[in-house]
Request: fold
Amino acid sequence: MARVTIREVAARVGVSTATVSRALSGAKRVSPAVVEQVRQAAEELGYSANGIASALRRSRTDTVGMVVPSITNPFFTSLVEGVEHALQDSGRQLFLCSSRSDPALEAQRLRSLVARQVDGIVISPVHGTESTGAVSWAAGELPLVQVDRYVTGVESDWVGVDDDAALRLLLEHLAERGVRTAAFVSSELTSSSTELRVAGFQEHSARLGIGLAPGGMLLGEYSIEWGREAMQRLLAGPSLPDAVTCADDLIALGVLQTCAAGGVRVPDDLLVTGFDDIPFAALSDPPLTTVRQPQVEIAAEAVRLLADAERAGERPLSRLALQPSLVVRASTGG
Amino acid sequence: MARVTIREVAARVGVSTATVSRALSGAKRVSPAVVEQVRQAAEELGYSANGIASALRRSRTDTVGMVVPSITNPFFTSLVEGVEHALQDSGRQLFLCSSRSDPALEAQRLRSLVARQVDGIVISPVHGTESTGAVSWAAGELPLVQVDRYVTGVESDWVGVDDDAALRLLLEHLAERGVRTAAFVSSELTSSSTELRVAGFQEHSARLGIGLAPGGMLLGEYSIEWGREAMQRLLAGPSLPDAVTCADDLIALGVLQTCAAGGVRVPDDLLVTGFDDIPFAALSDPPLTTVRQPQVEIAAEAVRLLADAERAGERPLSRLALQPSLVVRASTGG
DNA sequence: CGACGCCGGGCAATCGATTACCTCGCGGCG
DNA sequence: CGCCGCGAGGTAATCGATTGCCCGGCGTCG
Reply:
């Protein structure tokens, strides 16, 4: 466990630590012969630089922090994978944290990332207002870009999906299928995208002449369990709507499960739609109609914006709403 | 973006940096009055300690690294969540990396974690032999525990599931259901658990008089896509076995999808089983019979072993094979 | 032939927090 | 009254790598 330091490498070769550092990093011209000797010695001693010391001196860590509300939600894991992939090209690493949908935990993660001097942060904030303090503080300390969700009143870039367009796609599809009444199952209105999805649902359903079923606006959380429960509530009501629109795929999968258990035939008795197009959306019973978020592009843009922010100090803020696409499957009769 | 250092806090209060450090960490007795002043000043200046500098001096980071083969596989995300949860109690953080099933990337992640001086590493190694070098090097540098999979020839603790017992549960269940022939769809034999599962399948199926279907040992990778493809191969064969046993739930979900698309009725024409019991196993068409891994316990044990390893230097190695439990659902007629 | 520039390489400051060791002052005790 | 112990707090070394500045030597050019 004894770590070998640059000093020992230098001693073995008979040069100064400065030369070893330069030889290994290639920062300044060092004679090829010495470089080779240093390489040799480092190899033999099993030397690897102490990243902490290096980070302290350079005040860079070549690491980007990412904070997501949940690490078990496949939508976020796809996003994480995309970011990691995008970072790889620039030889940087990802430090991933989960805030577990808890603003306090989120604040703690952010403090920790800042303390660890990550070069930048990619965050999907938990809450539209309760996350504001921590996020804007962090944004003041280092480059930060929000993805998917955002908190208001923070000076930072944002990349996500065009929620309004997504709801338009979904509702126009449902209208074509002859839907006259619909329910909307979502999370509590605590995040930007949730609000936009609800607003989009209301706007486009009104425009298309689709009525909201009585008791049909169900707000809980983004989870399979909530989808199950919400559908149970709808089943307990006087009559079913023509369609249930869900604010994410997990909710929709829960809804489908309860339908199957309760003898409701999808799509014959009821149409169901999701949001995100997670890999499991194609595997449910029946396969789920949903809108696909361009996760790869979102991730790539986020990394690009971060790189921009590191280079230039002051820049105009970017807010990129990328376009979703409709994926029709059997849950709407596709 | 200008970071405020301990020196500025000290200057403002009119004490030395040593006192500020002690006041904030509570390491040594400092008069309450001074502690309060320091708190005040730190608050006003927005001071937060530089974790890098602190880590360099203390050579501890209060951070544990975790490396998993895939971050999109729900089994691993559950494991990660469990580890994060377990760490929380001791006030430590998790630094998560994905090796993407690539031994080279895995080695890089390990080097990076060691360079960053994490206090310990939890890893589920990619490959039974190709991971050996990097893992055993890392295990020599700092406390390391393997979870789920392990590489041979490395001195480290391991926690996972009793694969043999799991296959026994599954095959006894299938035997009770009258299964006489079965296929086994798994990953290539590149990891310990894969080997153990295949061995367990062979041993217990032989013991129970279940024959391996011709061309029924299909080795690919742990993914939905491979499950789909493997089932297509089985469909292309002369006849179907009574059951398809899969080495993880993702594979099984792919198998089920192809069955649905190909008109094979599960469980009427064919029984299908998975492994892990990921959340989506209950949502497929039909819901999947599988064995549940005790992820929470695995994670908790891993963290406990790590803590032990940090405290005591030399200890006997632990290899904990925890017991799985059978979860019967409709895919075997449950 | 002298001066200048360039190149390889060394010295030592530096990043920011922690901490071993020291000092000072005060109270108690022999 | 002198000495000791103790608690509060300061001084400065330390963690390990990086890098600005400097030096000596050699090649080149006027």
Q: What stands out?
A: The first strand of chain B starts at residue 63 and ends at 68. Residues 3, 5-7, 17-18, 20-22, 25, 27-28, 49-58 of chain B lie near DNA strand C (CB under 10 Å from a C1'). Chain B has twelve helices and twelve strands. The first helix of chain B runs from residue 6 to 13.
